[in-house]
From TrEMBL:
Gene3D superfamilies in the cross-refs: P-loop containing nucleotide triphosphate hydrolases
Presence of the UniProt keyword Cell membrane in the record: no
Highest taxon in the source lineage: Bacteria
Keywords associated with the record: ATP-binding, Nucleotide-binding, Transport
Species assigned in the record: Mesorhizobium hungaricum
Protein name: ABC transporter ATP-binding protein
Claim: Endoplasmic reticulum is one of the keywords in the record: no
One BP term from GO: putrescine transport
PANTHER family registered for this protein in UniProt: SPERMIDINE/PUTRESCINE IMPORT ATP-BINDING PROTEIN POTA, SPERMIDINE_PUTRESCINE IMPORT ATP-BINDING PROTEIN POTA
Domain ABC transporter: 6-236
InterPro entries: AAA+_ATPase, ABC_SmlMolc_Importer, ABC_transporter-like_ATP-bd, ABC_transporter-like_CS, Mo/tungstate-bd_C_term_dom, P-loop_NTPase, Transp-assoc_OB_typ2
Length: 345
């Protein structure tokens, strides 16, 4: 089946005077896996609920392909959903849960059974079809929810924090499996999470939301390395925001007149890892902490805010020797120094 693009066009939703969605526009490409990433309360669920038809927007519209679905009932939108709180029916067994969307669409019984079993095989639950929901683990329940969402072959999938209740190891396995399922089926997917790493790992593109607006839509690497706002920079990891002129260039060229972002892990303790066009930052070491995979150093530059420096444990020898209070210079390649237009430190 051919994948469809999703168009979200100037969608606005207010609860009283509180604006949950502030003219959100977004184009999702056919077959794309796009993640909405943002802190709690940024409007992610509201946007998915509106797209699925459970929340009525004040203005704006939704298109699947060139079909305007803004006013359609939820079950006529051709959208599969896996919501965090969109619970399975506990009194029905696994098979009946997965058959349910087909029964709703009046699919003949034998065909519904065949397709439900097929969907269960896709999520690796063959053999559990007669099991009660109550007898399943959290991970198995999410697989049932996935099977139920794909069983009627929707053109679009929406997933709202489907893995947030699972522990970390299982979550990572399921991230991989959801992405693989997406690649097998080619369904245009919008996935919601507040977990940066999950968004970076799973997505073709990430849309970062804050306060009912999309701040940036880009590939995971662009979002991480080239954030367009200070909010995106800081939400995506350990970002140092440096005032103009607070770093020197190694080759003695002029210092930058822009606000810069340098990620904690972009720093090196040795200038040999950095080209002549790189930057250097001189200061006093305030603290060091061992975090397993890396060391976190806190550096107080001469006349500037504290800077976080993250050194991989592979270079641990360099860090073990360091003592708080000593002078330290750290270096970063020019490619890892990113100017944030319009930002102030
Ligand atoms: P997210 O999923 O990103 O955490 P939500 O879309 O759930 O954010 O919520 C966005 C904002 O809208 C929140 O401040 C929330 O309190 C508010 N909100 C959501 N649903 C309602 C509602 N039914 N009535 C009033 N306010 C709501
Ligand atoms: Mg939510």
């Amino acid at each position: 089946m051919k994948s469809l693009p999703i168009t979200i066009d100037s969608v606005r939703k207010a609860y009283g005077s509180y604006v949950a969605l502030d003219d959100v526009s977004l184009d999702v490409r056919p077959g794309e896996f796009l993640t909405l990433l943002g802190p709690s309360g940024s409007g992610k669920t509201t946007l998915l609920m509106a797209l699925a038809g459970f929340v009525r927007p004040d203005s704006g519209k939704f298109l699947l392909g060139d079909r305007d679905i803004t006013r359609l009932a939820p079950n006529r939108r051709d959208i599969g959903i896996v919501f965090q709180n969109y619970a399975l029916f506990p009194h029905m067994n696994v098979l009946a849960n997965v058959e349910y969307p087909l029964a709703l669409r009046k699919t003949p019984k034998a065909e519904a059974r065949r397709r439900a079993l097929e969907a269960l095989a896709r999520v690796k639950l063959e053999g559990l079809s007669e099991r009660n929901i109550a007898a399943l683990s959290g991970g198995q329940r999410q697989r049932v929810a996935l099977a139920r969402a794909i069983v009627f072959e929707p053109r679009v999938m929406l997933m709202d924090e489907p893995l947030s209740a699972l522990d970390r190891n299982l979550r990572e396995t399921m991230q991989y499996e959801i992405r693989r399922l997406h690649d097998d089926l080619g369904i245009t997917t919008i996935y919601v999470t507040h977990d940066q790493r999950e968004a970076l790992t799973m997505s073709d593109r990430v849309a970062v939301m804050n306060s009912g607006r999309i701040q940036q839509i880009d590939t995971p690497q662009q979002i991480y390395d080239r954030p367009s706002t200070r909010f995106v920079a800081e939400f995506m990891g350990e970002a140092n925001i440096l005032a103009p002129g607070s770093v020197r260039t190694i080759d003695g060229g002029g210092a930058s007149r822009e606000t810069l972002m340098i990620r904690a892990e972009s720093f090196h303790l040795d200038a040999k890892f950095v080209g002549q066009d790189g930057v250097a930052l001189d200061g006093t070491l305030r603290a060091k902490a061992f975090r397993g995979e890396n060391w976190l150093l806190t550096l107080a530059p001469d006349g500037g805010q504290e800077v976080l420096v993250c050194i991989p444990s592979a270079f641990a020898g360099d860090c073990a020797e360091l003592a708080a209070g000593q002078r330290l210079t750290v270096y970063a390649s020019a490619a890892k120094v990113h100017a944030i237009p319009g930002a102030t430190a």
